[in-house]
Write a structure and sequence with these properties.
Helix 5 packs parallel to helix 9, helix 7 crosses helix 9 and helix 8 runs antiparallel to helix 9. About 55% of the residues lie in helices and about 5% in strands. The radius of gyration is 25 Å and the shape is globular. It starts with 10 loop residues before the first helix and ends with a strand. Strand 1 and strand 2 form a beta hairpin. The longest helix has 30 residues. The chain folds into 3 domains: about 70 residues, no CATH class; about 120 residues, no CATH class; about 80 residues, no CATH class.
Length: about 300
């Protein structure tokens, strides 16, 4: 539900259902039906919020509802949001020399050089511990100098599971071309690495595998405890309510200053004076330009809820 391309992950359980026996098939089919029901409620919620079932995919938008963004002047216009989000995910903000607009930046891989200097490094740093720890059995093969068996096992494994491997590669490619931020592609990247590493475990003596796994668990325990302790230490800053999260402002967590933007019938929306994020505000707040739009109405108030829409 983070990004639309994540919906392709449904292909994995669908393929597994085909491979399994009838009893397990029924269980998985029921699970998929329940998941589909949850997804349906989520798309309905998205439609109520945006006028689109899969925002910001324009083809899922219903243009004849009053609250959907209908052109570029509306901050929630789906094509505009898609172009902007895609550019930002490709490190648009990190351009140093020639500053391209959102649309041109995302075309023809203009973004690749800038992206590789930031996001690519983040991805490498994030997956390196996983690769290092899970590939420990590779040392076993090096010790045995059994390189040919290692290559043969991996080739046979990929051949026998080519559909799953192909699905993983397709998902990684779609992620890379559209929204190449690590958190959006984590599952696909880790799945791809796992497919390559599994054969190392399959062809190791069970007792040796058991010993390796014990060492991995110990290493993981030390690694994650240390990583989180370092994170807490480095992220700790002397600010009001420290070390609790900053919910009032980005600077020292003090209450922000807001100004009232008057709308129809004397109603108003708060706008942060620094025009950054609203954080925890005492009233309805927006940091977007649409608060200046005279066509943007506060339609009615009922049961302590207000409805906002365009004329």
């Amino acid at each position: 539900m983070q990004k639309i391309q994540g919906s392709l992950i449904i292909l994995f359980p669908a393929y597994i259902i085909i491979l399994l026996n009838n009893k397990i098939k029924k269980l998985l089919i029921r699970t998929l039906l329940i998941s589909f029901l949850c997804l349906s409620f989520w798309t309905l919620k998205t439609f109520i919020n945006t006028g689109c079932f899969l925002y910001p995919a324009e083809f899922t938008c219903v243009n004849n509802v009053s609250w959907v963004g209908k052109d570029y002047s509306h901050h929630s216009y789906a094509p505009k949001v898609k172009i902007e989000n895609e550019a930002w995910s490709k490190a648009w903000i990190d351009q140093k020399k020639k500053i391209l607009d959102y649309e041109n930046y995302s075309k023809n891989f203009h973004w690749l050089k800038t992206w590789s200097k930031k996001h690519f490094i983040v991805i490498l740093k994030s997956i390196f511990p996983f690769i290092l720890i899970t590939a420990i059995p590779f040392l076993y093969f090096l010790k045995k100098k059994n390189y040919l068996n290692l290559i043969k096992n991996n080739r046979n494994y990929i051949r026998n599971n080519k559909i799953l491997f192909l699905l993983t590669i397709i998902n990684i490619m779609i992620w890379f071309i559209i929204f190449p931020i690590y958190r959006y592609g984590t599952s696909f990247i880790i799945s791809g690495i796992t497919f390559l590493i599994i054969p190392l475990y399959v062809n190791i003596n069970k007792q040796i595998l058991y010993e390796i796994l014990k060492k991995i668990i110990k290493i993981l325990f030390v690694f994650f405890i240390s990583k989180n302790l370092l994170r807490i230490y480095h992220d700790h800053r002397d600010y009001i309510y420290s070390p609790w999260p900053k919910i009032f402002s980005e600077k020292n967590n003090y209450l922000k200053d807001y100004k009232k933007v008057l709308k129809n019938d004397g109603q108003f929306i708060l706008l942060p004076n620094d025009e950054h994020a609203c954080y925890y505000s005492p009233y309805t707040c927006s940091s977007s330009g649409h608060v200046y739009d005279k066509n943007f109405l506060i339609k009615f108030k009922n049961f302590n809820y207000k409805s906002y829409e365009y004329k």
